[in-house]
């Protein structure tokens, strides 16, 4: 091929590349130009599902484009998460998840995706304290009662939605922080664990407050303590763990959005702005308060740092070294 022809092909290739780049930027600026799917990797009705549907509604109203939730449950959330990790990085398929995302490296020896590289945190927006929940009117009136019983008899039991779930790890973390041992009774889901608690099969449950607030307000369950630095407006009578005698136990359950790696920066920035705008509304703040959660917002940088920090913390819980003095 002569030099003139070769040069022409090179120029044509550069032109195509430039056009592709311009097209990608234009698409990003126009985002969202079509409906946006948010994958919730758990069954309908759970805390992540409920909170995400509320956020999707707000995003739809703010952007004029449809944001909708699709549940893709299975394998502790890894099936739906893997689907998003393999999706086109164009901003039209997102992942909603919670603290469980930071647990995955400590639950599975191998994952069908790299949680640190294949998905990028975009924003987190509702923060639900974890609470120790018992049957209302039962023998445990305070957290101190429960811990004392566990120290005297290691058969004090708790229910969870399964081995490797956030309540499982959070309950073990509480035991490490309090110097007590609890007996784990796994169920197929958090709902079954709550039924077992109501029926007296287990002694307590570590639960995300939004998931049990209805039973608490109905006087069927009682909360002995909640995580976080301050009491919840919806449960003003319930002490924090620090107030109840267990300092340093600050496990909270966040809800947030991830996007496939390579999603245009313009799309990520727009989505962050819309989530921040949503959480600044009286409607979303009142909603968070009503379900026993704390309204708030993490941008992508903060979210990424927090996920890494919590992944490291859960690793220490898995190895029984959390809360040890250095």
Molecular structure report:
The chain has 326 residues and is α/β, with parallel strands linked by helices. Helix 4 (100-107) packs across helix 11. It has helices spanning 3-30, 47-63, 78-85, 100-107, 143-152, 166-178, 190-198, 209-217, 265-279, 282-290, 300-318, and strands at residues 36-40, 67-71, 93-98, 119-135, 157-160, 183-186, 204-208, 221-226, 252-260, 294-298. Helices cover 44% and strands 20% of the residues. The longest helix is centred in the N-terminal third of the chain and has 28 residues, at 3-30. It starts with a helix and ends in an 8-residue tail after the last helix. This is Extra-cytoplasmic solute receptor. Residues 1-28 form the signal peptide. Keywords: Plasmid, Signal.
Summarize this, please?
It is built from eleven helices and ten strands.
Distance between the termini: 69 Å
Number of helices: 11
What is the ordering of alpha helices and beta strands? HEHEHEHEHEHEHEHEEHHEH
- Mind telling me the CATH superfamily name of the largest domain? Bordetella uptake gene, domain 1
- Classified by CATH, the class of the largest domain is Alpha Beta
CATH architecture of the largest domain: 3-Layer(aba) Sandwich
| Helix content range | 40-55%
Q: DSSP strand (E) fraction?
A: 15-25%
Features:
326 residues, D-Maltodextrin-Binding Protein, domain 2, 10 strands, 44% helix, signal, BUG, Extra-cytoplasmic solute receptor
Outline the secondary-structure elements.
Layout: H1 3-30, E1 36-40, H2 47-63, E2 67-71, H3 78-85, E3 93-98, H4 100-107, E4 119-135, H5 143-152, E5 157-160, H6 166-178, E6 183-186, H7 190-198, E7 204-208, H8 209-217, E8 221-226, E9 252-260, H9 265-279, H10 282-290, E10 294-298, H11 300-318
Parallel strand pairs: 1-2, 1-3, 5-6, 5-7
Antiparallel strand pairs: 3-9, 4-7, 4-8, 4-9, 4-10
């Amino acid at each position: 091929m002569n030099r003139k022809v070769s040069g022409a092909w090179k120029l044509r290739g550069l032109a195509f590349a430039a056009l592709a780049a311009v097209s990608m930027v234009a698409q990003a600026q126009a985002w969202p130009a079509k409906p946006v799917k948010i994958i919730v990797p758990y069954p309908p009705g759970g805390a992540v599902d409920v909170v995400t549907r509320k956020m999707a509604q707000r995003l739809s109203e703010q952007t004029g484009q449809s944001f909708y939730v699709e549940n893709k449950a299975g394998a502790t959330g890894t099936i739906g998460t893997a689907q998003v990790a393999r999706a086109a990085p164009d901003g039209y398929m997102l992942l909603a998840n919670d603290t469980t995302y930071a647990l995955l490296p400590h639950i599975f020896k191998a994952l069908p995706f790299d949680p640190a590289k294949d998905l990028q945190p975009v924003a987190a927006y509702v923060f639900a304290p974890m609470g120790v929940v018992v049957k209302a009117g039962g023998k445990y009136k305070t957290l101190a009662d429960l811990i004392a019983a566990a120290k005297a008899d290691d058969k004090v039991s708790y229910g969870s939605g399964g081995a490797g779930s956030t309540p499982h790890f959070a309950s073990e973390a509480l035991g490490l922080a309090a110097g007590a041992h609890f007996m784990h009774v796994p169920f197929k889901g958090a709902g079954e664990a709550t039924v077992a608690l109501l029926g007296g099969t287990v002694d307590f449950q570590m639960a995300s407050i939004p998931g049990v607030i209805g039973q608490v307000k109905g006087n069927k369950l009682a909360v002995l303590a909640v995580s976080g630095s301050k009491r919840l407006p919806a449960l003003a009578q319930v002490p924090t763990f620090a107030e109840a005698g267990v300092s340093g136990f600050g496990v909270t359950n966040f809800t947030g959005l991830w996007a496939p790696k390579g999603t245009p920066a313009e799309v990520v920035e727009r989505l962050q702005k819309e989530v921040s705008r949503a959480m600044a509304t009286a409607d979303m703040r009142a909603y968070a308060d009503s379900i026993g959660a704390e309204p708030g917002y993490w941008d992508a940088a903060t979210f990424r740092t927090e996920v890494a920090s919590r992944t490291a913390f859960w690793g220490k819980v898995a190895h029984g070294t959390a809360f040890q003095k250095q």
